[in-house]
Amino acid sequence: MDPATVLDHQFVVAAYTVTWVLQLGYLTWLGLKWRSEKRNAARRTDHSR
Amino acid sequence: MKKIGIALYAMATVALMIWGFYQAIYVAPDDALQGYIFRIIYYHVPSASVAFVFFAVSLLGSVGFLANRRGHTEWAQVADAWAVAGAEVGVVFCTVVLITGPIWGRRAWGIWWTWDARLTTTLVLWLIYVSYLLLRRFAAGPQVQTLAAVLGIFGALDVPIVYMSNRWWRTQHPAPVFGGDPGSGMKDPQMLQAFGWNMLAWFAWGIFILILRFNVERKHQQYAEEEAQEALAANI
């Protein structure tokens, strides 16, 4: 493989990796936020009893 | 039943993502001029499309909030939840666009960034919605939702400008692949196929996280509402 093709390949890998790191990172953050909201709701229910 | 539906949708989305990736890397041919680096377009353009649509969702949510905030407060809260979900998920996709674009540009143009109309208007769009999210995160008081809705509406005005920028002005950014001059469009059916699958996959993924974000916001609103009611009852 010529060096230009290798470099192209590395740039494509970088672009795809950054995309997935951002998307999965955001999904994880959303999951944590969802869990925290559910915990707050459960704590409130316990407190009102 | 609802959980099964969500699981099926998530599985279909993951399958679409894998299929889209396979099409982009292994099926689509190299571009005649750009070669292998062209494959970034299969993530870059769908991400931009999803961001535009979600900023439109945020616009509708903001308008819905302003229209209903005095009469139908429950509808206003639902509209506000859509507005914040659209803005936040839109920012995630817009960030992808602003990172994958320069990675492509470095190889295709030899530079990471240039202040041409398409790139600059996209950066301005991202900054407006980041300021929208910061306003919601750090400001307090009863007017925050209203101020955010107004900012959301003004932010959405930049979307058609970004879309039209490389049609109205001469830009270093490539001419539109679709909806440009009469000769524009992907000619190779395998490229078109890879592009179509990735567009479908990213929209499926985007809708999944948009709905998740909407539900998180609704839960947060309910919690805040209950807390406010309790504080009110304690004062009486």
Structural write-up:
The complex is a heterodimer of chains A (49) and B (236). By secondary structure, chain A is mainly alpha-helical. Chain A is built from one helix and no strands. The mean pLDDT of chain A is 89. Chain B has a domain at 44-176 and 213-235. Chain B contains seven helices and no strands. In chain B, helix 1 (2-27) runs antiparallel to helix 7, helix 2 packs parallel to helix 7 and helix 4 (117-138) runs antiparallel to helix 5 (144-156). The A-B interface holds A 4-5, 7-9, 11-12, 14-16, 18-19, 22-23, 26-27, 30, 33-34, 37-38, 40-41, 44 and B 21, 25, 35-37, 39-40, 43-44, 47, 89, 92, 95-96, 99-100, 103-104, 106-107, 205, 209, 212-213, 215-216, 219-220, 222-223, 226-227.
Which labels suit this protein?
heterodimer, A: 49 residues, mainly alpha, B: 236 residues, 78% helix
**Helix-strand category of chain B:** mainly alpha
Overall spatial form of chain A: rod-shaped
Poorly predicted segments of chain A:
none
Shape of chain B: globular
Number of strands of chain B: 0
Mean pLDDT rating of chain B:
92
Helix content of chain A: over 70%
Order of helices and strands of chain A: H
Class derived from helix and strand content of chain A:
mainly alpha
Using the CA coordinates, give the radius of gyration of chain B. 20 Å
User: Poorly predicted ranges of chain B (pLDDT <50, ≥5 residues)?
Assistant: none
- Report, as a whole number of angstroms, the end-to-end distance of chain A: 70 Å
Query: What is the succession of H and E elements of chain B?
Result: HHHHHHH
Mean pLDDT of chain A: 89
Proportion of beta-strand residues of chain B: under 5%
* Quaternary organisation of the protein chains: heterodimer
**Contiguous helical run count of chain B:** 7
**How would you characterize the largest beta sheet of chain A?**
none
Largest interface: A-B, 24 and 32 residues
